[in-house]
């Protein structure tokens, strides 16, 4: 225990709670701005430039969590509580393994005392270790110490579907630890970074975006009958919907991947979406991943909504091509809100300079 000591987290508010907030790279200031608007004020310290910060909010944990469950942040991809912070001394992992394990045991004990959650007695426990720099050896040693500790306590170390997550962020100056259920973490992926296996013959990485949207928004694509995919080429999204048994009408002046052509459930309209007429009530799902100005895209999608049944699902990526993403999102959602109910807006892990909007046609 010589190498660590308790760090008293600075407290500027009463009540207050501390969180590690993670965004896609370059978007942490927008995550911070969203939380500042929601909570009035906050204190923030960058842990990983552009993507991870320690934030103190002027609200207790339960109140803060309730607030972003009601009003989920768009750019705060992952928000996890900090229950314990210890100053980080040099050579965290240079001593014998037992020393590190004893240290982790003491953290775990304090985390359990603080949260009422247990890591032993048959509990399925995921250990998430994150660090900013390239300290992979250190991350590995801390993970192994936790895994052997959990095993000794009679818990089951798992990667997916845990009952409890022990989350450790190894910063330059301190180590921040939290213990939570997946519901409280909002994700059982470390930092909300949902990863999928690349498949043999996969048409585009864009497919991951639609897969992540399905999980994030709790959808099931196999429940849809006929989808309109606007800006569909080369066909990653179309291929996923076809795999789920959906009929797809794909619109794009560019070429679809040859492996999709001739699919019995695919209608390919090789045209600019602005020129394609639509029949009413043809589709129960509209997806659009067009690389175009967000407002022009919104105008085009709104016209095509004539083809979607009332209550139909709409998933649209909104490109943040210009500065002021928060303003862009406000303007675009105001346009859509006249025709649809906005159910979710999120910058997914697989979104680059864009967010995904989830809506229901009015
Ligand atoms: C990012 S790609 C879509 C990738 C696709 N979701 C996938 O999974 O493979 C954007 C597509 O939008 C198409 N696009 C741009 N403007 C369009 C328009 N006016 N009408 C139809 N498609 C358009 C482009 O041709 C391009 O193929």
UniProtKB/TrEMBL annotation:
One of its GO terms (biological process) is methylation. Keywords: Methyltransferase, Transferase. One of its GO terms (molecular function) is methyltransferase activity. Signal peptide: none annotated. InterPro entries: RNA_MeTrfase_FtsJ_dom, SAM-dependent_MTases_sf. Residues 204-291 form the Ribosomal RNA methyltransferase FtsJ domain. Pfam families: FtsJ. This is SAM-dependent methyltransferase.
């Amino acid at each position: 225990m010589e190498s660590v000591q308790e760090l008293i987290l600075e407290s500027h508010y009463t009540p207050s709670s501390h969180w590690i907030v993670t965004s896609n790279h370059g978007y942490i200031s927008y995550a911070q701005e969203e939380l500042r608007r929601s909570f009035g004020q906050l204190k923030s310290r960058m842990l990983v430039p552009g993507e991870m910060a320690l934030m103190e909010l002027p609200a207790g944990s339960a109140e803060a969590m309730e607030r972003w469950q009601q009003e989920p942040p768009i750019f705060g991809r992952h928000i996890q509580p900090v229950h314990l912070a210890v100053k980080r001394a040099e050579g965290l992992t240079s001593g014998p393994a037992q020393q590190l394990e004893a240290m982790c045991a003491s953290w775990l004990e304090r985390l359990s005392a603080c949260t009422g959650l247990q890591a032993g007695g048959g509990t399925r426990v995921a250990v998430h270790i994150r660090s900013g720099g390239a300290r992979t050896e250190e991350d590995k040693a801390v993970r192994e110490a936790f895994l052997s500790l959990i095993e000794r306590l009679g818990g089951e170390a798992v990667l997916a579907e845990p009952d409890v997550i022990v989350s450790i962020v190894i910063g330059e100056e301190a180590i921040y630890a939290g213990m939570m259920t997946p519901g409280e973490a909002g994700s059982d992926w470390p930092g909300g970074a949902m990863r999928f296996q690349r498949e043999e013959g996969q048409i585009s990485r864009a497919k991951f975006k639609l897969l992540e949207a399905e999980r994030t928004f709790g959808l099931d694509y196999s429940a849809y009958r006929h989808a309109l995919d606007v800006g569909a080429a080369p066909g990653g999204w179309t291929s996923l919907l076809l795999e789920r048994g959906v009929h797809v009408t794909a619109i794009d002046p560019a070429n679809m991947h040859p492996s999709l052509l001739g699919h019995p459930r695919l209608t390919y309209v090789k045209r600019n979406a602005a020129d394609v007429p639509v029949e009413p009530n043809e589709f129960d799902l509209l997806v659009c991943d067009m690389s175009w100005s967000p407002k022009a895209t919104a105008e085009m999608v709104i016209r095509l909504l004539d083809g979607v049944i009332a209550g139909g699902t709409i998933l649209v990526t909104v490109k943040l091509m210009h500065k002021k993403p928060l303003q862009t999102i406000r303007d675009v959602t105001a346009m859509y809100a006249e025709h649809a109910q906005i159910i979710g807006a999120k910058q997914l892990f697989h979104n680059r300079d864009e967010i995904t909007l989830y809506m229901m046609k009015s």
